[in-house]
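Is this the right way to post structure tokens for a design question? Let me know if I should format differently. Anyway, here goes:
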């Protein structure tokens, strides 16, 4: 229960930060990406602030023996840059540039009930589901191939 509460608090703080900073407004994000037009640097300031907070917390966490709400620290699952990562990053970037939303701001903005953000969020969730199904099939196929010696 303690772990779920920390997830809720972190999500609530993240959502509040997005709303307060105006990053739930896709026109601001698109204005940041428009470097040759009416450029808006506010997203860079928000990112800089986030990196600063992360750096401070990471420095503090490195001195801890274990996290406050978990048994231990877990390393990232992968440390390699592969085709799947690059493809995902490209899809993310193109989607962000076209719509002005990425997953966090889209979920926060969904509370407004706007049709554009609701369609984006629905497509995003459907993509997550399709990817999960695809990954499951690939893993099952790989395990069948390895168990049959092929």
């Amino acid at each position: 229960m303690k772990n779920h509460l920390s997830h809720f608090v972190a999500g609530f703080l993240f959502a509040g930060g997005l709303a307060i900073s105006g990053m739930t407004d896709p026109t601001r994000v698109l204005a940041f990406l428009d470097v040759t037009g009416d450029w808006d640097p506010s997203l860079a300031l928000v990112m800089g602030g986030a990196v600063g907070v992360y750096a401070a917390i990471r420095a503090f966490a490195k001195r801890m023996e274990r996290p406050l709400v978990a048994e231990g620290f877990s390393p990232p699952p992968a440390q390699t840059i592969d085709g799947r990562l690059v493809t995902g990053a490209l899809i993310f970037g193109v989607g962000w540039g076209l719509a002005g939303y990425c997953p966090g701001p889209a979920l926060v903005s969904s509370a407004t009930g706007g049709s554009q953000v609701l369609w984006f969020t629905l497509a995003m969730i459907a993509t997550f589901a399709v990817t999960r199904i695809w990954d499951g099939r690939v893993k099952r196929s790989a395990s069948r191939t390895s168990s049959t010696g092929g």
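Format looks fine. Someone answered above. Worth noting: The chain has a mean pLDDT of 87. The two ends are 45 Å apart (CA to CA).
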